[in-house]
Every structure is written in structure tokens, then in C-alpha cells.
Amino acid sequence: MEDDRARKYFSCNDKERAAFEAGIKLGTIYHQFVGAPVSLRNVESLEKAIEEGCRVQPFVESCTVKISREKIREKRNEYNYTTLSPSMLDVELIIRYREVRLKARLKWVEELRYPLMFIEEVFEGTGRFDGD
User: Fold this and answer.
1) How far is residue 99's CA from residue 77's CA, in Å, rounded to a whole number?
2) Residues 6+ apart with CB under 8 A from 72
């Protein structure tokens, strides 16, 4: 999406814009899906729904969502389901804005006891991430 008509509204460089876009997407995932009913039966479809919803947004190159099956087993109730909690989520998001590629994450960091959203790597031009 080289022709970004909204670009004129942003007073920042391309790296900052990529970081902004990543934050918007990760915040949306967190606030839209935490609390959703989840079980071992629907966990895969919930992961795919989150991924597909994120992928249609501008500048998203890829989105991978993993929900901890172990934590579902630990938290499920007598009706065999629970609700999605922050500690269950591990999201990897790749944003491409112009010549910048950025890998961002949303995952539970036990030492902080917090669902942290952070930038793992940033490349300009032809940079490649581990696993690319």
C-alpha cells in the first residue's frame, strides 16, 4: 500500500507509523477478544477468526495467533469451557509500512504478570526476520 492517502495526517517517520499501526492492531485484538468463550473444541476456529480479522486491516503482512490449550484445560469449568484470558494469548504480527517491516508481539510475560505488547524487530528495506 505505497499510496497511503492518510499519510499526510501523520507527523512521524515510517518506523514510527509502522509501530503505531502495530499498536492499534494488537490493542484491537486484546480488547475485542479477551472474554470470548473458548474451549478445546473451538480454540482453533477462534485463533483463525482473530488472524483473519487482523489480516484484512491496512499494512498487515501476517498475523499468527496461538491460544494456550494447557491454560484452557486448567481453567475450564463444569460446562467444559472458559473465557479467553490475557495469559492464554500469544500473537505475532508483521506490519509492512512502505519500506519498513516490523514484528510486534502480544504475549503474557510471567515475570511482569502482564499481557505485554511490544516490538520484537524492525527492518528497513529488504530486512528479513528469523524464520522468513
Assistant:
1) 47
2) 38, 39, 40, 43, 82, 88
pLDDT at 130 over 70: no
Number of C-alpha atoms within 13 angstroms, CB side, residue 64?
5
Per-residue confidence band for 126, with pLDDT thresholds at 50, 70 and 90: low
Give the β-pairing of 89-97 and 60-67: antiparallel
Where do the domains of the chain lie, and which CATH numbers do they carry? 13-122 (3.30.1300.20)
Pairwise CA distance, residues 26 & 51, whole Å: 11
CB 117 within 8 A of CB 106: yes
Ranges of beta strands (E only) in the chain are: 37-38, 60-67, 82-83, 89-97, 100-109, 114-124
